[in-house]
Amino acid sequence: MASFFAAAYVVFLVGVCLVYFVLPKIVRPYWLLVCSMVFYLYDPANAGFIVQLLAASAATWAAGLLIERLRAPAARRIVLGAALAVCLGSLLFYKYFVFLGRSFAGLFGLDGARFAHDLAAPLGISYFTFTAVGYCVDVYRGNQAAEKDFLLYTLFVSFFPCIVTGPIERAKHMLPQFKTPQAFDYNRVTGGMFRILWGFFKKFVVANTIGGAVDAVYGSLHNASYTGPVLLLVSLLYTYQLYCDFSAACDVALGAGAVFGLKLTENFRLPLRQHSFTELWRHWHISLTSWLRDYLYIPLGGNRKGAVRQYINQLIVFLVSGLWHGASLSMAVWGLLNGVYLCIGRATQTARRKLARKNPLYYFKPVRRVLQAILVYLMFTSCIVFFRASEVFPGSAGLSDAVYIYSHLFTGWQTLFAAPQTVGRVCAAIGLTARTSIVLACSVLMVETVESAAEPVHQFIRRVPIFLRWPLYAALSTALLVFGSFGNSGSIYGRF
Q1: CB–CB of 385/244 below 8 Å?
Q2: Which residue in 15, 29, 365, 467 is a FRET match for 257, CA 20 to 30 A apart?
Q3: What is the pTM of this model?
Q4: Residue 154 main-chain phi, psi, to 5 deg
Q5: Any residues with CB less than 8 A from the CB of 378 and at least 6 apart, and which?
Q6: What b/e string do you get for 233-243 counting C-beta neighbours within 10 Å, with b at 16 or more?
Q7: 173 catalytically annotated
């Protein structure tokens, strides 16, 4: 049930919802806490780690109360440091102990046998740790009053729709909502249910269908038939798979939140249609990027200490972002490469604007924007190759896989032009048949059309006339049942 896309989760969510609206409002937050604990304990593999979740909750809750009461700056810093040490120390141990051990063993020629196996990590540790750390820092800064109710605070840290894939919420946003439960509202609940259906469509019809082809190629890179055209195609497709897979999990989370009358943070706003790399990152994984901005980039100095320091801070933030996603060198390279692109973009911004005015395409806005979006998508994909090749994914060899892909991108293009049917047969062999390609094209068109709305999907759908809304429900449900690929119900970001 730790996966949002399992049948058990749907049954669980329906049961939680039915009881939730029967209970008195004063009891509802505690019912959500009980259900969050049940969700965490459902999988025996997670049950043993609930101590870490509760310890992080207790330590940061107590730290918040102490920080608010203490007046001496040194004492406040000590308490904050202790709370951060508990949270971040646990995160570092479970996610990076083995990685660091292997790295040092390799660097100094030591026996690394003890680091042969990865440690099992608590479910959602990356998410609940950042949530708790953000709360402590906000209390320390005076931006958030310390929460007196430990159970309510624990709900904030462990709320089950957010704990697997986020979004990473802020106390200022969520605690007031938990304290003021909303009455049942038909439009809001049905809108939330549609967003959950929308997430299932994106996951099983789009992301999983693409994922079959991507896994076939990335899982057997040295197959001689996987030449440049195929490697480029699946890498471009993986970027879209990652978007649909991750945003689908967020759709399910936000849909569940809407059902309970809770407004969670939107994590994506058309990131792959942005016209600059900077704008892409302002619209991709918004809760994480804003967290890193507020709690790392700005404390490092942000852009207040000159251009060079700004670029260094940017690189540090994206290195941390890469390692947050996974303890591997390829993830670190993925983060740093994104940071390098952003630094280059900022350093050349003025010159590019002057040069653009001399480009005839500059005055044809639709053409210019399409070309910019394509370039940004290609740049992002050039980073995503390192992401997908990371050791975080089973069967991947990390940097060596990424290097192999880049070294073979320019092979086989003569075959594409001389005998395109050969490449076509390879695509069919990895699952990209003519039928599958048509289904994917139509599905992507539907995703891009629906998500072009100016408001979130679960709000937009309630404004659609009923004679169009119900056919859309039927089309999504039919597509899910007929074209859905149900072999993998796990979320890519659930592993982080």
Answers
A1: no
A2: 467
A3: 0.93
A4: -65, -35
A5: 236
A6: bbbbbbbbbbb
A7: no
Query: What residues have CB less than 8 Å from 242, skipping those under 6 apart?
Result: 384, 387, 388, 492
Residue 265 burial (CB count, 10 A): 19
Question: Of the listed 117, 283, 325, 458, which one is catalytic?
Answer: 325
In angstroms, the CA 379 to CA 239 distance is: 11
At residue 200, the 3 state secondary structure works out as: helix
Give the closest residue to 179 by CA, choosing from 61, 19, 28, 37. Answer: 28
Record the tokens describing residue 162, joined without a space: 């957010």
Helices 228-259 and 208-218: crossing angle, nearest 10°?
140
Span 454-468, pLDDT tens digits: 888 899 888 888 888
Distance of alpha carbon 310 from its chain centroid, rounded?
25
Task: Mark residue 301 as left, alpha or beta (left: phi above 0; alpha: psi -120 to 50; beta: remaining).
Answer: left
pLDDT(114) > 60: no
Residue 21 and residue 17: Cα distance in Å, rounded? Answer: 7
Contact 385, 221 (CB under 8 A): no
Cβ pair 264, 106 in contact under 8 A: no
SS (H, E, C) 151-169: HHHHHHHHCHHHHCCCCCC
**pLDDT, tens only, 380-395:** 999 999 999 987 787 7
What is the enclosing helix (H) or strand (E) of 390? none
Q: Are 442 and 163 in contact (CB under 8 A)?
A: no
Helices 349-356 and 329-347: crossing angle, nearest 10°? 60
Q: At which residue do the structure tokens 């003890």 appear? A: 114
CA pair distance 314, 345, nearest whole angstrom: 12
Helix, strand, coil % in the chain, rounded to nearest 5:
75, 0, 25
| Closest to 389 measured CA to CA, from 231, 208, 267, 204 | 231
Whether 249 contacts 3, CB under 8 Å: no
Q: Span 292-310, mean pLDDT?
A: 92
